[in-house]
Amino acid sequence: MPRVTILSRELIVRSNSAGQPEHVLAVIYSSTVIPPRTIYPPLFFYRNATAEELGANPRIHYYPKDQDYQDKELQAIRQDFDLALSEVSPTFDLP
Predict the structure, then answer these.
(1) 71 burial level (CB within 10 Å; 0-12, 13-18, 19+)
(2) Are 36 and 29 in contact (CB under 8 A)?
(3) Whether 12 contacts 89, CB under 8 Å
(4) Residues 2, 32 contacting (CB under 8 angstroms)
(5) How is the chain split among helix, strand and coil, in percent rounded to 5?
(6) Mind listing the pLDDT tens digit for each residue in 60-80?
(7) 0.85 exceeded by the pTM?
(8) What distance in Å separates the CA atoms of residue 24 and residue 73, rounded to the nearest whole number?
(9) E strands in 41-88
(10) 22-35 residue pLDDT tens
(11) Would the N or C end of the chain have less CB density within 10 A of its end CB?
């Protein structure tokens, strides 16, 4: 898999299927192969960033609780990445 970069992890509010607001974690990642994309893993995978971690990277508000959750996040990114590659629109050179 090409190298991916986590651009941010932050809590957002979106509407659920009943039209009610719900808090979800948005993980935005990118690579040189595809533009930035967002996945929405379960919030319980994560812990709040410490003040020191926020100082080092203010866009990352949450971190996986442990290696198992980190692996699950990477698996979700891999699945989304593969989906994005299968949906790539054809490209062409302009005259």
Answers:
(1) exposed
(2) yes
(3) no
(4) yes
(5) 30, 35, 35
(6) 999 999 999 999 999 999 999
(7) no
(8) 14
(9) 46-48, 62-64
(10) 999 999 999 988 88
(11) C
| Rounded Cα gap, residues 13 and 26, in angstroms | 10
Cα three-residue angle 16-47-61, rounded to 5 degrees: 75
Token representation of residue 79: 């699945």
CA distance linking residue 70 with residue 73, whole number of Å? 5
Assign residue 29 a region: left if phi > 0, alpha if psi is -120 to 50, beta otherwise?
beta
pLDDT per position as a tens digit, 5-61 = 999 999 999 998 899 999 999 999 999 888 899 999 999 999 999 999 999 999 999
Q: What is the C-alpha separation between 16 and 25, in angstroms, rounded?
A: 13
User: Residue for token digits 């692996």?
Assistant: 71
